[in-house]
Amino acid sequence: SLDELDDDDGEEKERKVEESLTQQNTVQNESMISDPGAAYLIQDTPRSRSHKSEEEGNRHRHRQGREGSGTAPTALERRMEELEKELAAERQENGRLLKAHQDKDELINKLKEEIDLLNRDLDDIEDENEQLKQENKTLLKVVGQLTR
């Protein structure tokens, strides 16, 4: 029927929008990983603002159409709501993972600093040990000469 064809076109359009969002999120996530300080720049660019407002406008129009028609939500609308909820959950999980990643990076940097300090201490101790060995040899020679 014609309704089924319309649903297929809508699903294909929705799939393309989801793929576009996935690609944007991937680029954003990769950028945040390479430069965590620049994450706020990526999230609030004019292009992302226009996309967000366009996306919200589409949702608003979509919901208005649904509420105004007085009919039950279609399978596509229910699927879209499910995907929106799933997307929100994934974004929350992404934020949690990003925070954990940043915390681990901080810990790694602190441990590297501690390792550097310990290596410097080790170098100093090895130098002192070598100096003490030389002093010990000298003292042994002096004691050896005195006992003769």
UniProtKB/TrEMBL annotation:
Q: Where is the composition biased (Polar residues)?
A: 20-32
Compositional bias segments (type: Acidic residues)? 1-11
The record's annotation in InterPro entries points to:
Par-4 (IPR026117)
Region of interest called Disordered, as start-end residue ranges on this chain = 1-80
Task: Tell me which PANTHER family the record gives.
Answer: PRKC APOPTOSIS WT1 REGULATOR PROTEIN (PTHR15093:SF1), PROSTATE APOPTOSIS RESPONSE PROTEIN PAR-4 (PTHR15093)
The name under which this protein is listed is PRKC apoptosis WT1 regulator protein
Origin organism is Cirrhinus molitorella (mud carp)
Starting at the broadest rank, the lineage of the source organism is:
Eukaryota, Metazoa, Chordata, Craniata, Vertebrata
